[in-house]
C-alpha cells in the first residue's frame, strides 16, 4: 500500500523520472560541517559583525573551510565584505522557495578573496520568503534540508540571522548544531537574550533536539562604562554563567570602518583591537569544534 501510494504520488506530480528534471544532484563531499547560527532578537548587537569576522577568522587562522550564509533580508553580510566577494552565486530565496525541494545552498554561494571562505550573496527577496515560508508544510525544515549535501563540503557553516524570531530565524535554529548569541551591554539586549534562549529551548524540545548553545558573547563593550559593564556581566553571569564566553568584543571603530569599507577587519586593520578580539573568539570556537 505504502509503495503503491509513493509511486502514485510520483506519477501524479510528474516526478517519476526526477533525475532528468531537477537540478543535477550535487556530489557529496567528505566533510561534516558544524552549523553555527548567530542569533539575537535585537538589532545592532553585532550579529553581522560577529558572523563576518568569526567566519573569516576560522578560515584564515584555523584552516577550516567555511560557508557564511546570510538569511537576513537586509543583506548586511554582503555589504560588510562586498569588496572581497567574487562575482557569481545566486539568490538564497530561490533555494528556500523552490516548490520541488532538493536544492542546495551551495549552488548559490560565491567565493571570496579569503581562501576557504564562501558566502551567499545579498538577496532582498528574502523579505518575501519570510512570509511565503509561513504557508509551506514543513516550513521550519527547509533550510536544514537545503544544507544536507552542502554540509559535506564545509567544516563550518555560519548563519547570520535577522533581528527577530520569525520564520527565517526559526529555520536557521532548526538547521543549527550550535547557537552563538551576541549581546551588547544594554538592558534591552539582556531581555532579548532571555527571549532567544526561550526560543532555543522550545526548538530543542520540538524541532531540533541536537541544538546547543555555543555561548553568549558580550559585544560593543565600552571600556569607559565600568559600572554598566559590571552590572550587565554580573546579571548575565547569574543567569547564564555556564555559557557566557570568556572573551568579549570591545567597542572598536575599526570594526565599523571595515564594514563600511566592505572588508573584514583582518583585511582592513589586522592589528586593531577588534581584529584581536575576533581572532581570540575564533580560537575559542575552533577549540570547541575540536571537542565535538
Ligand atoms: N565592537 C564594535 N565596535 C564598534 N562598532 C561596532 C561593533 N560591533 C558592531 N559595530 C557596529 O554597529 C552596527 C551594528 O552592528 P551589526 O553587526 O550590523 O549588528 P546586527 O547584525 O546585530 O544588527 C554596525 O554599524 C557595526 O559596524
Ligand atoms: Mg545584521
Topology:
Blueprint: H1 2-13, E1 34-38, H2 47-62, E2 66-70, H3 76-80, H4 92-96, E3 110-111, E4 117-119, H5 126-133, H6 142-146, E5 156-160, H7 167-175, E6 178-183, H8 187-206, E7 212-218, H9 226-240, H10 253-261, H11 265-268, H12 273-291
Parallel strand pairs: 1-5, 1-6, 2-4, 2-5, 6-7
Antiparallel strand pairs: 3-4
The structure holds adenosine-5'-diphosphate (ADP) and magnesium ion.
Magnesium ion is lined by residues 47-48, 72, 76.
How would you explain this protein's 3D organization?
The chain has 292 residues and is α/β, with parallel strands linked by helices. The chain has a single domain, classed as Rossmann fold (3-Layer(aba) Sandwich). It contains twelve helices and seven strands. The chain has helices at residues 2-13, 47-62, 76-80, 92-96, 126-133, 142-146, 167-175, 187-206, 226-240, 253-261, 265-268, 273-291; strands spanning 34-38, 66-70, 110-111, 117-119, 156-160, 178-183, 212-218. It has a seven-stranded mixed sheet, sandwiched between helices. Strand 6, helix 8 (187-206) and strand 7 form a beta-alpha-beta unit. The N and C termini lie far apart (42 Å). 43% of the residues are buried. The model is unreliable at 15-22 (pLDDT under 50). Bound molecules: adenosine-5'-diphosphate and magnesium ion.
Amino acid at each position: 500500500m505504502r509503495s503503491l501510494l509513493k509511486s502514485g504520488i510520483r506519477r501524479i506530480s510528474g516526478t517519476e523520472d526526477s533525475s532528468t528534471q531537477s537540478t543535477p544532484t550535487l556530489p557529496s563531499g567528505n566533510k561534516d560541517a558544524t552549523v553555527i547560527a548567530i542569533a539575537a532578537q535585537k538589532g545592532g548587537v553585532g550579529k553581522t559583525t560577529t558572523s563576518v569576522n568569526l567566519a573569516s577568522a576560522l578560515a584564515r587562522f584555523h584552516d577550516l573551510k567555511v560557508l557564511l550564509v546570510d538569511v537576513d533580508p537586509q543583506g548586511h553580510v554582503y555589504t560588510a565584505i562586498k569588496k572581497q566577494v567574487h562575482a557569481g552565486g545566486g539568490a538564497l530565496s530561490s533555494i528556500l522557495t523552490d516548490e520541488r525541494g532538493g536544492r542546495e545552498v551551495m549552488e548559490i554561494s560565491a567565493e571570496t578573496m579569503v581562501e576557504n571562505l564562501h558566502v551567499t550573496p545579498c538577496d532582498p527577496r528574502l523579505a518575501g520568503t519570510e512570509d511565503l515560508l509561513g504557508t509551506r508544510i514543513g516550513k521550519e525544515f527547509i533550510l536544514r534540508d537545503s544544507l544536507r549535501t552542502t554540509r559535506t563540503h564545509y567544516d563550518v557553516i555560519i548563519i547570520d540571522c535577522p533581528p527577530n524570531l520569525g520564520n527565517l530565524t526559526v529555520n536557521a535554529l532548526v538547521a543549527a548544531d550550535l547557537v552563538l548569541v551576541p549581546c551588547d551591554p544594554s538592558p534591552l539586549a539582556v531581555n532579548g537574550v532571555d527571549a532567544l534562549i526561550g526560543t532555543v529551548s522550545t526548538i530543542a524540545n520540538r524541532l531540533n533536539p541536537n541544538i546547543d548553545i555555543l555561548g553568549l558573547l558580550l559585544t560593543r563593550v565600552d571600556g569607559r562604562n565600568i559600572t554598566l559593564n559590571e552590572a550587565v556581566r554580573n546579571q548575565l553571569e547569574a543567569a547564564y554563567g555556564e555559557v557566557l564566553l570568556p572573551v568579549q568584543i570591545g567597542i572598536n571603530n575599526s570594526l565599523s570602518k571595515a564594514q563600511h569599507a566592505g572588508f573584514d577587519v583582518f583585511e582592513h586593520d589586522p592589528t586593531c583591537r577588534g581584529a584581536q578580539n575576533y581572532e581570540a573568539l575564533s580560537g575559542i570556537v575552533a577549540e570547541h569544534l575540536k571537542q565535538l
